[in-house]
Design a protein that fits this description.
By secondary structure, the chain is of the alpha/beta class. The protein has a single domain, classed as Rossmann fold (3-Layer(aba) Sandwich), CATH 3.40.50.1820. It contains ten helices and ten strands. The strands form two sheets. The protein has an eight-stranded mixed beta sheet with strand order 1-2-4-3-5-6-9-10, with helices on both faces. Strands 7-8 form a two-stranded antiparallel ribbon. The protein is globular and about 60 Å long.
């Protein structure tokens, strides 16, 4: 595997609601005459593009020859700080449908050249997509919905978000119109509005990964840790089993958790071994099918 130095730039585009979708673009320093396949990176629930080792992961993937676009969903609750949940009124109404619309907005901006660089061309005819946790769930649906996406990788992905919500949460939504969750890392109590639940019910055929995977024939790699404390690895097994792709693989990493031993903040010089394993498998998969 050949590695290159990379350049990182930042920007934002408008969502369908006119809210900013913040992104970072990582591109190898290979010369303006080169074209690099685009890979879109999606963070998970209570996540953001700058969480823990995610920027380092994107740098690593880019150094292997990709233009990586790491995006924040417009309703993820993180504003210009990039790392603080300071927009909980937006977080409260982050629907799976809007997340999908945000991915489509990024793809359209890439195709129009609104997201660009002078370090090389961006190959937008066939893109890859990588998502972690809820982002993996959305990556499946986005790949089924956008023909430009030609390769899929999920990390610790949820298979069916309708099965994630407890009876208590659903009762809160029905009786009070909102429920609350605790962010264990920050201690914040974060509201989730009924619109999140209603959207998933009303648009299940569009937004639920386990349904969309049944019609997704592109190369698909499902990576999960056997010790995942948040999303059991049986979720990856469900996605793998229901994928009709002739080019599919499931990789179960032992002795690790939901983030493959990555943490926020991430201050180490090297990836923890489980995360390095996930990154290497992802890079190899993307190189084989996109380069």
């Amino acid at each position: 595997m050949s590695y290159q130095t990379i350049t990182k730039s930042a920007g934002s585009i408008d969502s369908t609601e006119g809210l900013p979708i913040y992104y970072d673009l990582y591109v190898p320093n290979g010369g303006s005459e080169k074209t690099y396949p685009v890979v879109i990176f999606l963070h998970g629930f209570k996540g953001f593009k700058d969480w823990g080792p995610f920027p380092a992961v994107c740098e690593e993937l880019s150094s292997a020859g990709f233009a990586v676009v790491a995006m924040n969903f417009s309703l993820n609750g993180v504003g210009e700080s990039m790392t603080e949940f300071d927009q909980l009124e937006l977080f409260a109404r982050e629907t799976l449908s809007q997340d999908l619309d945000d991915v489509a907005s990024v793809i359209e901006a890439l195709k129009k050249g609104e997201i660009n660089t002078d370090k090389g061309g961006l190959g937008t005819d066939e893109m890859g997509i990588l998502g972690h946790s809820r982002g993996g769930h959305t990556a499946v649906a986005a790949a089924a919905e956008n023909e430009q996406i030609a390769c899929l990788v999920t990390w610790s992905a949820v298979a069916d978000y309708l099965a994630r919500w407890s009876d208590e949460m659903i009762n809160d939504w029905v009786t009070k119109g909102t429920t609350e969750i605790l962010n264990g890392r920050t201690g914040q109590v974060m509201p989730l509005g009924k619109v999140v639940y209603e959207d998933a019910l009303e648009n299940a055929d569009r937004v639920i990964a386990l349904r969309r995977i049944e019609n997704l024939y592109i190369p698909s790699l499902f990576i999960h840790a056997k010790g995942d404390e948040s999303v059991p690895y049986s979720e990856a097994e469900k996605l793998y089993k229901n994928s009709p792709s002739e080019d599919k693989e499931i990789k179960l990493i032992p002795d690790s958790g939901h983030t493959f031993d990555g943490a926020h903040p991430f201050e180490e010089e090297e990836f923890p071994p489980p995360l390095e394993d996930a990154v290497n498998a992802t890079s190899n998969w993307l190189q084989y099918y996109l380069q």
